[in-house]
Design goal:
The protein is mostly beta strands. 13% of the residues lie in helices and 45% in strands. The strands form two sheets. Strands 1, 2, 5, 6, 7 and 8 form a six-stranded antiparallel sheet that branches. β1 and β2 form a beta hairpin. The two termini are 21 Å apart.
């Protein structure tokens, strides 16, 4: 019997204290168990910002009302 692999969402902590789930195309982004640790450890909050709706955008892209990111963490689904 094959074991089911876990998936994780990414919870983004903003500098103003919000916690927002990262979304891609309006849906929570899911990362597989074998990639999530690397993704979280290599994430660079200095080059990304996030909207209140959860979409990440590159810093300086001119998107209005983005929030600065403090850190990210994995959340099991």
């Amino acid at each position: 019997m094959e074991s089911q692999k876990k998936s994780y969402q990414i919870q983004v902590h903003t500098v103003d204290g919000r916690k927002i789930i990262w979304k891609k195309q309006g849906q929570p982004a899911l990362l597989p168990e074998e990639l999530v640790e690397t993704w979280v450890s290599k994430f660079r909050p200095d080059i990304w910002e996030i909207t209140a709706e959860g979409e990440m955008v590159g810093t300086g892209r001119g998107v209005r009302d983005t929030l600065k990111i403090l850190k990210v963490e994995k959340v099991p689904v």
